[in-house]
Design goal:
This protein has two domains: 9-35 and 139-265, Periplasmic binding protein-like II (D-Maltodextrin-Binding Protein, domain 2); 38-129, 3-Layer(aba) Sandwich (D-Maltodextrin-Binding Protein, domain 2), CATH 3.40.190.10. It is 43% helix and 14% strand. The chain has helices at 13-20, 67-78, 94-102, 113-121, 146-151, 153-172, 174-184, 196-213, 228-240, 259-262, 267-276, and strands at 9-11, 26-33, 38-43, 58-61, 87-90, 108-112, 126-129, 140-145. The strands form two sheets. A five-stranded mixed sheet has the order 5-4-6-3-7.
């Protein structure tokens, strides 16, 4: 995006925070992940009951450079362990991920919220591992260059408003939203051999996790708000993780001045469309 290849990024906080120390002018103009989406979980039967038990264990991550792996390293540090006290095993996503867990390749996981729902839907029993001092972090959202946010306000308002309308529609009729996704992207339909009703039920569970994670209660008149305190906690996290060595101010990476205009639309009209959708 800095090189001009994209206008908007949906991104977790670390790249934006790191960018602020390198002179980029990226800023969040709306939230997507209301809260930090990464967490730790133990595979049942691993003998792990807390973060301290992860020493010498294998932690499954999508890839070793993922935000989940970074989160896990900081969690180990906070538990008084070396950041490399556990082995990080890249297990990818989808069927590859499920197979790796079922085959016993990992003892614990460092993934994000919807991934955990997919794992549970596959019949894999896991137990959440709370991490002290890591609650209330901002999860991330839509970011753009500050200069563009100022010079192209109408375009960013239109984008944000379209997304906000989609949230209202999806909250009101999640099944119709999934079927619309299937129509637009046929490869997201249930795999061959999976009854449509079963596939729909599983995808509805995953979608509900994401809707819950938006931090926008159904019926809310305000989409996209960002808690500055949560952003500060994410900056503190980046410092603990060793991702930055220079201070970053919340105002450097936050510019929500367009949210008032973004939320100017008739929710009743969207709800009527959602009710009529199949």
């Amino acid at each position: 995006m800095i090189a001009g290849g994209a206008d908007i990024a949906l991104v977790t906080p670390e790249p934006v925070i790191i960018g602020a120390t390198k002179g980029t002018d990226l800023a969040y103009f709306a939230s997507y992940y209301g809260d930090w989406i990464y967490s730790l979980a133990a595979v049942d039967g691993s003998g792990i009951t807390g973060v301290a038990d992860l020493a010498g264990k294998r932690i499954g991550v999508t890839n070793v450079g993922s935000s989940g792996a970074t989160f896990a390293r900081v969690a180990l540090q906070l538990a008084g362990l070396d950041q490399d006290a556990a082995t990080f095993v890249p297990i990818g996503v989808g069927a590859q991920q499920i197979s790796a867990i079922q085959d016993g390749q990992v003892d614990a996981l460092a993934l994000w919220d919807t991934q955990y729902q997919i794992v549970r839907s596959a019949g894999i029993a896991i137990t959440d591992l709370p991490v002290d001092g890591m609650t209330g972090l901002f999860g991330g959202g839509f970011a753009a260059r500050k200069g563009r946010l100022e010079s192209d306000q109408d375009a960013f308002v239109k984008f944000g408003r379209a997304f906000a309308k989609g949230v209202v529609h999806t909250q009101a009729n999640p099944e119709a939203a999934i079927r619309a996704m299937w129509a637009a992207q046929p490869d997201t339909r249930p795999a061959a051999g999976t009854p449509e009703a079963d596939g729909l039920a599983e995808q509805l569970q995953v979608l509900q996790v994401r809707l819950d994670g938006l931090g926008v209660p159904q019926g809310s008149q305000d989409w996209g708000g960002i808690d500055p305190d949560g952003v500060q906690r994410s900056i503190d996290f980046a410092q603990k993780a060793g991702l930055i060595t220079e201070p970053v101010g919340v105002d450097q990476i936050l510019d929500t001045g367009l949210l008032g205009r973004i939320n100017e639309f008739s929710r009743d009209e969207i709800l009527k469309r959602a009710t009529a959708a199949k």
